[in-house]
Amino acid sequence: MSWLILIFLVPLVLVPLVFLMGFVGCGFHPATVPSAPSDLVATAISPTEIDLTWTDNAPTNTTAFRIDRSGNGPMSTTIPASPGTQHYQYADTAGLTPETDYEYQVFAIVSGPTAAGSNMAPATTFAIPPSFAIAYNIPLTTDDPGLEGRTIVQRIDAGHITSAGAKVRLTLRGSTVANLVINKVTISQPATAGHAWDSAADLIEVRFGGASGATIPANTEKTSDITNYTLVLGKDLLIAFDISTTDGSARRATMPGPTQYFKPNTAEAAVQTRSPNYQTFSGRVSIVEKIEVAP
């Protein structure tokens, strides 16, 4: 009877043991989860493109990357990894819209499992550049040195302004022989009362590269940033300049219509109601060579 029991029990013990040893001998191991990518940076390139760069911290194990995008139009895409490559870049152009915030995260993948994600990286797509029209363009023909330390108020008559718009861009011209350094530039309509060189309440600063003023080397021009200012037809326009005390060589032209006002030893470009006794030059335009407008 005991032999019969052994006959039945031995297979029940040996068979599971053999299977277990077989699996151990096969060297079975779970897939390794890679280290998370790092140093993710998102950089807007245009109104419809954001470029990503990141570092792979497991270049021998990573087989692919999953890129997740959140924001207006979330997206997830997978790209292959290159063995041994540590630094990656990716251009996202999938349905991005201008002036929109997005955020990205990158995940490393090996044979299925996904690592912890990289840092989050935000970026905002650029605005679509406006289409500009020329509202004023008078080539400046004569060097005009010796303007150091002056405020110059250029009054451009309505007859020379041919287009209107809500955005303005100025092009300024220095002389051919020396530098022109301007500490501040403003734009406005003339005041309805007071002096002819006084500004209305719409006085606003025009900036260059995000900063006040502009340095214009000899024989060159300088274009301003886009300024949110409503330029209207049928009205004169004031553009005022504070010239530095060191470099004041500009360029001018003579023609009917514009009037130039200036006062030495002052800095009133940003002042709405300016002091009296500005000197007057009728039929002269200086420094500002072109005005462009956009809707």
Mean pLDDT: 88
Count of beta strands: 21
C-alpha termini separation:
104 Å
Helical proportion, percent range: under 10%
Q: Structural class from helices and strands?
A: mainly beta
| Alpha plus pi helix count | 1
Q: Spans with pLDDT under 50 lasting ≥5 residues? A: 3-10, 12-29
Taken in chain order, the helices and strands follow as HEEEEEEEEEEEEEEEEEEEEE
Overall, the morphology is: elongated
Q: What fraction of the residues are assigned to beta strands by DSSP? A: over 45%
> Mind telling me the C-alpha Rg?
35 Å
Quaternary structure annotation? single chain
Main β sheet profile? 9 strands, antiparallel
Describe the fold and architecture:
The protein has 1 helix and 21 strands. By secondary structure, it is mainly β. The strands form 4 sheets. Strands 9, 10, 12, 13, 14, 15, 18, 19 and 20 form a 9-stranded antiparallel beta sheet that branches. The N terminus is likely disordered.
Describe the secondary structure blueprint for this structure.
Blueprint: H1 2-25, E1 38-46, E2 49-55, E3 64-71, E4 75-80, E5 87-92, E6 101-109, E7 121-124, E8 133-137, E9 142-144, E10 150-156, E11 165-173, E12 180-188, E13 204-208, E14 211-212, E15 214-216, E16 221-223, E17 227-231, E18 237-248, E19 250-264, E20 279-286, E21 288-294
Give the structure's gist in a few sentences.
8% of the residues lie in helices and 48% in strands. It has one helix and 21 strands. Mean pLDDT is 88; it is low at 3-10 and 12-29.
